[in-house]
Amino acid sequence: SSEVIRFDGFVSGSLNLPSGQEFPFTNTSFVSAPQDTFPDNDSKSATVIVIADSIPPLPSNYDLEMDKTVSPGTLQQGHSFEYSLKVLNKGPDTAMDIALWDIFSDSIQIDFGSFSLGLFSNNRDTLMWKIDSLAPGDFALVTFDAIVPLALQLPEGDCTPFSNTGTVYAAYDTNRTNNSAEAVVCVIPPDDSCDLQLTKTASRDTVFEGQPVEFRIDVTNTSLCVATNVTIVDAIPAGLVYSNFEPQPSEPFATDTLRWVVPVIESGEVFTIIYTALCPQNGEITQPESFVNSACLIAQSDVDISNNCDDAVVVCRPLTNCLAGGSSFYLDRNIFEPGKTTGLLPEKLVITLNIFKISDITLDVFDITGYRIKRIATGLQMRGENSYTWDGRTENGDFAGSGVYLVFVRDTETGGRKLECYLKVIVVQ
Q1: Mean pLDDT along residues 50-64
Q2: What is the pTM of this model?
Q3: Which of 89, 382, 411, 421 would bridge with 134, disulfide CB 3.0–4.6 Å?
Q4: d(CA 246, CA 60)
């Protein structure tokens, strides 16, 4: 049997050969294999005669600059990486008949289907491209993928560097010092051990009855390995109503446990699960109640299980005004215009709280969805009448927008009693 390789060639017109004369160009091909018993016929030369054009090209001047990068710079053996070769014409004239080539190691396997610019030739360890012209300030970009195959034996535990160099050439380039650039990729031997990290968060820590909260689970592959067949389980507490899963869970382990099976999580990838929970409503809760959601991941190749589980806690609060009538907890107005000036000073909402003994009080302002926008006071308060003010601003210093807001007062267990009350105020801007 035989193997035939064909490719085209050209002699650049920018060589400025004397017109009308014949010039021979010879190139030699080689073949080698460990089992070859007769090396005397392993090379062959071919010569082409070129007759120079009768009209020589006009000379020009330009500076071509080569830049080469590889991404990622460090990776595990068997994973694909990308080379990028950038040729910039720094001027002042247009460059013509540009040759670009890249010499790479035999250990690197090129993906010939990934070239952003078609190859002009491929000769053993050298790739070559032809660029017809490049105007001053323009650049040409060539990208392609490569891989260090798993069949190659690498030193255990070390990061083996693989270097290759890209070079650009054109006849009238006035600066040859920047025509080559090297890129180095560091390849780590394959390792089945992974480190996956799970975090779980809630969009809000406090929600009123009947209001939704969004839970989010992030599983991050912090290692260089590829994690496979990862199982994520989420123990959901009773009492909340769940919906809008993205992605949808697999069959649950039990009625209170959801499960997702992820076939592959690449190195550095984050797999995210988001869903919505609805707090009980219609009087199902009579006092603040905490709901704890716990999620964990299971992966055979995970070497560190200390970061495989996480909790998210949300507090659902009833909308019950325990001090209806306002004799002990009241506002000086029901409609508040933040920033409005009365006399020389801007108006403030005055909040008055009568307490019968020294108490540990927290006073907050929430929007109607249950999001806390401002903490007014917290800590021990003296018995009797206590007055507080709110200037209508949120925690970040901005004025609250128009709408209905809830002023909440909360007292910890003091002398066997617990206070949890709210009053509504309408903010007008």
Answers
A1: 71
A2: 0.47
A3: 89
A4: 60
